[in-house]
From TrEMBL, chains A, B:
Superkingdom field: Bacteria
Enzyme class per UniProt: transferase
Protein name: Probable acyltransferase
Subcellular location(s) of the protein: Cytoplasm
Main location: cytoplasm
Known EC number: 2.3.1.-
GO cellular component, one term: cytoplasm
Quaternary assembly: Homodimer.
Residues of the signal peptide: 1-23
Species, as recorded: Teichococcus wenyumeiae
Annotated catalytic residues: S187 (nucleophile), D350, H383
InterPro entries referenced in this protein's UniProt entry, alphabetically: AB_hydrolase_1, AB_hydrolase_fold, HAT_MetX-like
GO molecular function annotations of the record: homoserine O-acetyltransferase activity
Length: 403, 403
């Protein structure tokens, strides 16, 4: 049973933690044949960034990685944006034998997003959740505020998906990029993709939002609030002021928040392996404190995740998601600005962004006479199909990039 | 804005609190034409009940209400079972001018479940959530343990959906009922309906589970655990020992738990009226502590609900749901015992029990050659369609009861 627990935890992490996470899929035959792509984590620094909400960040940093070579025109670039719990490790390995990035099945030499053709960039976002992970670089509430010499905590300014785009643009400009042949990402990465196409239509030739939505409506605003509420409930949270020596971070609340995200991101097909088994040695039919195996697994997986995450960053990320497209008068107004070709990749059994959301975005693009194709991802993993089994869209992506 | 807030809160309650709740629907024209049905809340007492988990309840009580007259054969009875946050007030009014029960649109003289033809009984369940509401009678963790003279708290035995059925059977027997022409209920009431058909096939002529499921699989076990987790996190919960004078109940945790249930039970169509408006005077684009209107509404609605609810009862109810059909070797084994005719009423946009669950139960019944019809409820309310707009199934129910 112990062996099993460890195995399951590794599986859990593979869906949440790209850096430890081989995106093992049965449908990625090229991965074995292709040479291993090695990538290096780099850091981009910026100064005096004015947030969309009007605050000033005197200094800031985000991590990124690249593969391929930028052409002289600077127009063969691809930008990959990560999901809520992810970071810039979307493809390649930091060292031979280490786990590849979460979309490694579709990014690399000869793969659908071909690094022999494209200069591919993936960056960490501001207020990245993995603030306590050595391989994530981010400026957020856990960073030191140069004005005080202490972590920002809740004094960090509100940032939006649009802010992520702005900082990515600074990074791309610093690399000489003039145009994006493709912007792509899953989940929160899909929101960044849409925001890019609306904000900088001249830059974006193709947009590929996976497991995304064209709007964060009131129902999704509410869910994001449900996700984060346990953090605010944890007495150790202390209004975000928990970084000082001798204080404990709100690990219980953060674990509970990640438990919700973990279950919400999956579907019943994934859960089937647990059945209705009790946790080892427990009897929920007789003892109210005893649990089922799936409950214990969620707890263990989320607790492991919480140890490299920052609770305040979680709050800033949910807010950034809530502010998706908030500078436009609705989805149609935003999408009408786009001049991209679109490949929309929802997951049929997505419980976070039900497939209707992507369908409606696709319908809106069609109504606007914009070139768009939608391909539904199938499988038992719910929302996570777009991360762990993106390989199933390989042919669609190749065709999209050939046009 | 204050007027609006009150209005919205009343709407929220109408979906959760049958006793304050006119189930207002555009599709219930008979409600105005029919004479008002008055009902009386009664109390059933039982002694020395042995739970399915093997514990003994020396004494117990549940509330109930009836309408219509039992025939001499005792076989024209109908049993109505309530949902997670409900109680026995399924139909009629306690006094002229008061709000009717939550399924009043389909139960009453001349209505689809016709009280001129049937003797209709609705009962509170054990460990009912509304333990602090004067019009709910229930034995649960907030009740006084006769062995100690103090509330049970977490010493109350685990009870299951099957236990609810057993106590209902005692009640029905005390009333002279020999057979049920119909067992029906929504959500948790649907689970009780299925459990009845499996446990006492000789009793159940027709079964009508609305917004239900044929199984609580690992994914749903996990969700029920997500629902209740905020209660366990609240420092005022104290392992369930909060009833003593001078102690505060875990209202914050209970409110958060009810916030999850409230949003999960609805769908994006319901949420549309809020749009992306901030709460009054707030600016979530600039202040991390500020909120959107939908978040504030969820908080207000859930807090109102929490004031008449008991946190420990919530924990016992989630466990009861988790133990659905736990005495059988799976759904097919349970359903194969049934000799009922079935009308299955899922909601197309149910986010609690996605429609696939009811579809699979229906498929299983068909495979078992059992007579079953499935009619999908449509509308913007998600799971709650089966409570607030059950009237749309009126014709299907009439036809079902005519067979």
């Amino acid at each position: 049973m112990i062996t099993r627990r460890i195995l399951l935890t590794a599986t859990a992490l593979s869906s949440l933690l790209p850096r430890h996470a081989p995106a093992q899929t049965a449908t990625a035959p090229t991965a074995a044949a292709a040479p291993e792509l090695l990538v290096e984590k780099k850091v981009f620094e910026f100064a005096n960034y004015r947030t969309r909400g009007g605050a000033n960040l005197a200094t800031g940093r985000i991590g990124y990685q690249t593969a391929g070579t930028l052409n002289a025109a600077g127009d063969n670039a691809v930008l990959i944006e990560h999901f809520f719990t992810g970071n810039s490790h979307a493809f390649g390995r930091y060292a031979a034998g280490e786990a590849p990035g979460y979309w490694d099945a579709i990014i690399g030499p000869g793969k659908p997003i071909d690094t022999n053709r494209f200069f591919v960039v993936a960056s960490d976002c501001l207020a990245n959740l993995n603030a306590r992970d050595a391989r994530t670089t981010t400026t957020g509430p856990a960073s030191v505020n140069p004005a005080t010499g202490r972590p920002y905590g809740m004094d960090f300014p509100v940032v939006s998906i649009r802010d992520f785009v702005e900082v990515q643009k600074l990074l791309l400009e610093s690399l000489g990029v003039k145009k994006l042949a493709l912007v792509a990402g899953g989940s929160m990465g899909a929101l960044q993709t849409v925001e890019w196409a609306a904000a900088y239509p001249d830059w974006v030739e193709r947009a590929m939002p996976a497991i995304g939505t064209g709007e964060i409506d009131a129902w999704l605003l509410g869910w994001l609030d449900i996700w984060e509420a346990p953090i605010r409930m944890d007495p150790n949270w202390r209004n975000g002021d928990y970084y000082a020596q001798g204080r404990q971070p709100p690990l219980q609340g953060l674990t509970e928040a990640l438990r919700i995200v973990t279950l919400h991101s999956r579907d019943r097909g994934w859960a089937r392996e647990f059945g209705r088994r009790p946790a080892e040695g427990q009897d929920p039919t007789r003892r109210i404190g005893d649990r089922f195996a799936v409950e214990q697994w969620l707890e263990d997986a989320a607790a492991a995740r919480a140890r490299v995450s920052d609770a305040n960053s979680f709050l800033y990320l949910t807010r950034a998601n809530q502010l998706f497209l908030n500078e436009y008068d609705g989805t149609e107004a935003a999408l009408s600005r786009s001049r991209a070709r679109w490949l929309v990749l929802p997951s049929a059994k997505d419980r976070v962004f039900p497939v209707e959301y992507a369908q409606e975005m696709t319908d809106t693009l069609r109504r606007l006479n914009q070139p768009v194709e939608m391909v539904e991802l199938k499988g038992p993993q719910g929302h996570l199909e777009g991360v762990v089994d993106i390989a199933q869209a390989s042919d669609a992506i190749r065709a999209f990039l050939a046009r």
